[in-house]
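Q&A FORM
Asked by: J.P.
Topic: structure of Multidrug export protein MepA

PROVIDED:
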Amino acid sequence: MMASNDKSSERIHLLSDERIPKLLLHYAVPAVVGTMVNALYSVVDRIFIGQGVSEFAITGLALTFPILLFVQAFGMLIGVGASSRVSILLGEGKHDKAENILSNALLLTIVTQVLTLVPVMIWLEEILRALGANDRTLPFAYDYLKIMIPGNIFSTLCFSFNAIMRASGYPYKAMITMLIGAGLNTVLDALFIYGFGWGIEGAAWATVIAMAVSAAFVMQHFLDKKSEVQFHKRNMRFSMEQIMAILSIGMAPFFLQLLSSGIAFLINSTLAEYAGSPLMADRAVGAYGIINSIALVGFMFMLGIAQGMQPIVGYNYGARAMRRVRQTFNICAVVNLSIGLFVTVAALSAPRFLASMFTSSPEMIEASADALRCCIYGFAFVGFQVTATQFFQSIGFGGKAMLLSLSRQTLFLIPALFGFPLLWGSKGVWVALPFSDICAGVLGIILMAYQFRLFDRRAEQEGL
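REPLIED BY: S.T.
REPLY: Here is the structure written out as tokens.
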């Protein structure tokens, strides 16, 4: 117990006294590895499927996005909410409440997974048909999801509790558990698709098995008596206070994920409507899947940087060290803006090369390259929007985080998706994406400027 207390004191000392650049590097590196590994689970699957199965397998996979985003939303709800609360409570010295949050997060995970699994599996084919699947693409989408949906419990346990592990002071251990799963997923993808010839089902099995292994490592951490926060039998009961604490912060990414599901459906259906023919529609949807994969890598890198600031901002906000809070945000915002600019330049410089990583079809490559040139211009603004959203989540301002998240997915994007195609056809879909990104980024700048003014006034009143 003494050793555990010494380690806890050391982590608290780092969060309160260590230089911010060094501290941010300490937390951001494993967070970036974690989010990039998350991206690689999807991207590696798509590369192997696009190259090793067929041209329209990538389209079938793109049709699964709305469903996967929907079931994964509950993991975002629990993981972000619980990790933010744990970080803040540890900063306030409320260790017992932090452990109560941990146990309630596990109970919520089990309940939400059961409630989503049953209806989705019962009506899976009907849902896919409604999402635009046809006889050419339905077999790919159905075969992938019939394995992925039941296995989503492992994904939720892995990513949600990995975030809690990182927020409670174990960033490098969290990174290692994610790397184990990512490496295993890549090996199994190659073995199952090329070695065993299992096709798209092989990619699904590879992901589920890798997630299960990672989840086992993550859950073992919270059973270890040396861990900062642990599972205890006494906490294995629902506490409405703790559940509401989790949900209040987790609602922003939850609704964002649900909206992402709806947006994916809207984009697919709009592309199909304006593409001109069923064959062109399938290629347009496939191009969206490829662009989504390319953007996902950059987005998850920026998200990792923003998540790296979570324990620093959460702890120092709880300790009222506002200068450290501001400095942490400023560094993250500059870094993510730079990443966004780099991705933009890379996508504009080599769009065909990037698309060819996911398919060997010349038609699909050309469609993807043309679309990528249109939709990448607002990506730098995404970096600031992600940083601001994560900042508000880290300090418990779920409402502002939700407003900023929803603005990008509803206030700006949905009207553009309905209006721009009327002017420019299917190209209007690709133009709508950067339009929304830029507008949401500007809104994020306004909200952060206002929030820092409030911090300054509070500091003056408290004499800090």
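FOLLOW-UP: The radius of gyration is 22 Å.
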